[in-house]
Design goal:
Elements: H1 2-16, E1 32-37, H2 43-60, E2 65-70, H3 75-88, E3 92-95, H4 104-112, E4 117-120, E5 130-134, H5 136-151, E6 159-164, H6 170-183, E7 188-194, H7 200-214, E8 221-224, H8 227-239, H9 255-263, E9 269-271, H10 274-289, E10 300-302, E11 310-315, E12 318-320, H11 325-330, H12 337-340, H13 346-351, H14 366-370, H15 383-396
Parallel strand pairs: 1-2, 1-3, 3-4, 4-5, 5-11, 6-7, 6-8
Antiparallel strand pairs: 9-12, 10-11
């Protein structure tokens, strides 16, 4: 383990210097990093991923710029955006594919133009140069375990509905496989649905159909693949007069989902540190833009239907319930208690133990926030987070190598 951590530290220190203008033969040249995200319907992309990737690229490469576009769940639109970046001469592209198969030809076109592609969150098909995501099977396992716990000791006799993600996303199948590995022989899956584009309205319609076909008294829990789907499920349960509400899982730690958890409407969500994912993606893109590979950053390899041994980093997802919001999302400054607990939720927040500052004036200063290392599982911080803290400490020592206060691979 020490040897492995030393290798990762060495690689990340090399990446952290990519933007200093002090590397061999690099000079002070900047370049364009393309950033293509899939959806404006899911809050995380615009609120977290985009600004975090932009900030990290700038820290690693001050003269670089990020050319951003959102596909709004349109695969054709994303192909056009990718082709535009190729034409404009981007030196590296980070892309979360709306449709991994539909984007394959554009990834191949980028490869022909010698533009490396980093697959972000979903493993795009074609010759990608790097991949960063979270362990999707573990996401599903966390959801399945939480659902079983919420249904109690008699879970084996319970009947559930599985509300999966968009079938064009490889992650949807990844989550489903992980969840079923936990639920197998422990519950009866009465209905199972794919929810196009992960949309809440599609989930609402599918859950309404399940309630109509099965009867509200014959459903004991819902495995919802993400928070948008959970939102549609819960609205359908309310519309059908189901009370008390059934256990419902989620994923992404959307603010409205966190508030539903506080109110007792949603059982849990899965938090995936956006900052960790964004930092790794930016590090890969900057390294590739400077002509280096991602092998110094990657901790494993993955295969897609069209490529083998893609250098990858698979980060650790964290389950969040009402009792762990403060030591996960609040501690990592994803949200403040002020954001989670508006006046109408004050009593519910008190019951959940969210009793910290609730006014904007008591929030930490921007300068303080900049010094904090984000992310990590409070029950067992991933190795990369520990490495990041080591790097941060080394870089702050007098005479330590580096360029200012930027840290790599947090």
């Amino acid at each position: 383990m020490r040897n492995a951590l030393a290798a990762v530290i060495t690689g990340l220190m090399a990446v952290s210097m990519a933007g200093c203008g002090e590397g061999e033969g690099e000079g002070d040249d900047g370049f364009t990093v393309g950033l293509l995200l899939p959806s404006s319907a899911v809050p995380r992309w615009e609120r977290f991923d985009k600004p975090m990737i932009e900030k990290r690229v700038k820290a690693l490469c001050p003269d670089c710029k990020v050319a951003y576009a959102n596909a709004a769940d349109d695969a054709t639109n994303q192909r056009q955006q990718m082709n535009s970046l190729i034409t404009r001469g981007a030196r590296a592209i980070i892309v979360d594919a709306v449709d991994v198969k539909a984007l394959r030809s554009s990834v191949q076109a980028a490869d022909r133009a010698h533009i490396p592609v980093v697959a972000y969150d979903r493993l795009a098909e074609g010759p990608v140069s790097g991949f960063v995501s979270f362990d999707g099977a573990q996401v599903g396992r966390l959801q399945g375990k939480a659902l079983l716990k919420a249904m109690g000791d008699r879970a084996k006799h319970r009947r559930i509905v599985m509300m999966n993600g968009d079938p064009v996303s490889p992650n949807a199948a990844w989550y489903r496989k992980g969840a079923r590995s936990v639920l197998h022989d422990k519950v009866t899956i009465r209905k199972e649905y794919a929810n196009l584009e992960w949309r809440a309205d599609n989930a609402h319609n599918n859950m309404t159909a399940a309630i109509r076909d099965l009867g509200p008294g014959r459903i004991d829990g819902v495995l919802a693949a993400n928070d948008a789907i959970a939102s549609g499920v819960i609205s359908a349960l309310k519309s059908a007069g189901v009370s008390p509400l059934l256990p419902v899982t989620g994923q992404d730690a959307d603010l409205d989902a966190v508030q539903r958890i506080v109110k007792g409407e949603q059982t849990m969500t899965v938090y995936k540190s956006f900052r960790q994912e964004a930092d790794v993606a930016a590090s890969m893109a900057v390294a590739l833009g400077h002509g280096r590979s991602t092998h110094a950053i990657a901790t494993t390899t993955v295969d897609s239907p069209t490529a083998q041994d893609v250098p990858a980093v698979l980060l650790t997802p964290v389950p969040v319930t009402a009792g762990t919001i403060e030591r996960t999302l609040v501690r990592d400054e994803v949200y403040s208690i002020h954001e989670i607990c508006p006046p109408k939720l004050r009593s519910a927040c008190d019951r959940a133990g969210l009793t910290g500052p609730t006014t904007k004036g008591t929030k930490e200063t921007k300068e303080t926030k900049e010094k904090l290392v984000k992310g990590g599982d409070p029950g067992g911080v991933p190795a990369r987070a520990g490495v990041a803290r080591h790097l941060q400490a080394v870089r702050r020592r007098p005479g330590a190598p580096g360029c200012g206060t930027a840290t790599a691979g947090r």
